[in-house]
């Protein structure tokens, strides 16, 4: 029995697979907050499409090796290589988490595409359009809902700020309005009341950073030729009633976030020192964006 292969259908399938693969890697990068160049995501998508082409050709009898392409070991190896092309280097646990997100997005989008294909008499174009729409929805809309439900509902998060041998425990409030970043490094900023950092700083430095009308030049002179000089910087910000405000930034050694019995650490974060109190009840002494906790969880 002869197998009839329509070239236009093959091209549609391969182009559709390439686009879907590329969007899957893009959506995974969006959700996991990984910044990777476009060419790496495209390379991983091309690898997946080449494997699909090899599998299809072998299944149609155009060449030998169907058992090879259908082997679970080969499938897993290609999957791992695709992830490495797109996202290497990553710590082991985060690599597994990223792979899990990729699989989850792929399952949801492929399920939507298959369902749409059945509804429209196996129309390949409809199938791919539906799958693409599902990926975009997960990356832009669906993840936003998950983000609000999972991260913002936690509200209060205990954090530990470590600086050398000293550390202090602080209650932080998750606040989406606090999206401040260090202009030099792009690192996220956690805004902390100055008095909450009392056990971390020498008395003279605490007095300098706690003053409501602080003079950064005086602080710079005070820490000159000391190890503290590399830890302080200025953080410009804008808020209601303060278009050109300035906070003193302090770089700690690490910040630890507690979630139940789990602890997650983050080093690339800056403490913005706030000279006033957030609220009189003292229920929290820090404000941080939920993205910071999400990053810490994904990296550990």
How is the secondary structure organized here?
Blueprint: H1 7-32, H2 38-59, H3 66-69, H4 72-87, H5 92-119, H6 124-151, E1 156-163, E2 166-174, E3 188-193, H7 203-210, H8 216-223, E4 232-239, E5 242-250, E6 254-259, E7 262-266, E8 269-274, E9 286-288, H9 290-299
Parallel strand pairs: 2-9, 3-8
Antiparallel strand pairs: 1-2, 1-6, 3-9, 4-5, 5-8, 6-7
Could you give a quick summary of the protein structure above?
By secondary structure, the protein is an alpha+beta fold. The protein is built from 9 helices and 9 strands. 50% of the residues lie in helices and 20% in strands.
Widest sheet, order of strands: 4-5-8-3-9-2-1-6-7
Q: What ranges have pLDDT less than 50 throughout 5 or more consecutive residues?
A: 148-154
Instruction: Determine the number of helices (DSSP H or I, runs of at least 4 residues).
Output: 9
- Oligomer kind: single chain
How helix-rich are the residues, as a percent range?
40-55%
End-to-end distance? 55 Å
The topology string of helices and strands comes to HHHHHHEEEHHEEEEEEH
Largest sheet: 9 strands, mixed
- What would you report as the Rg, rounded to the nearest angstrom? 25 Å
Mean pLDDT: 77
Let me know the number of strands: 9
Large-scale geometry: elongated
Give the percentage of residues in beta strands: 15-25%
Q: What class do helices, strands and sheet pairing give?
A: alpha+beta
